[in-house]
Design a protein that fits this description.
Elements (H helix, E strand, L loop, with lengths): L6 H23 L3 H13 L5 H19 L2 H7 L1 H23 L9 H6 L4 H13 L2 H10 L10 H29 L8 H24 L2
Helix pairs in contact: 1-9, 2-3, 2-7, 2-9, 2-10, 3-7, 3-8, 3-9, 4-8, 5-10
Length: 219
Amino acid sequence: MRARGSPYTVLVTVTVWLSLVVACLVISLTPGAGAINTMTNSLNEGWRRSIWGIVGQQLALVVHVAIVAAGVGLLVARIPWLFETIRYVGAAYLVYLGIRLIIARVPDAVEEQDLERSREGRWPMLRRGFWVNLLNPKAIIFFLAFVPQFIRLDRDPWPQYLILIGTTVVIDVIVMWFVFAATARSFRRLTSGRRGQRTLNVVFGALFIAVAALLLVVH
């Protein structure tokens, strides 16, 4: 048996953590509903304010890991009707967001001060980000398979879960804010006019609906 503080044990621990970092980067860089939500917020509300939607998404991520840690994720995976219910509710919410964007009224002309006044509040952005990520049963199943790969049964699980959550959240925030939100910001000048804003709403609304369709079609 290896000593807990031996160089071998430290090497294994660091290797596992680096594997977690790489896995988190790949997952976060894969476009999905969270990325679409982040880019929409960045284009509509600005890069800085898009962080509130990202925070909401991270809160949902923490809930997903907690669900898996508590064993509820396994329960969801083993009860078909519960999984299907979450799947349809999640898809319906994405369709709702998509339709709301597509039919959203774009004013003919907006004064700068009116633009500031009409900005979406932090709480609605945070809440939407939370529900976009939470109502995704695929995420629960994914974390059910993902989390155990980085938890060692011969160690206290809670510090490991804290490290896993901390690493996952930090990397996802960096990717969402500095990749997806920043990329969307570079196109913001193209959507400053009424026509550009309208095009933006239709495109991202359609993307939300497309993700919902994938959620229903891909099992």
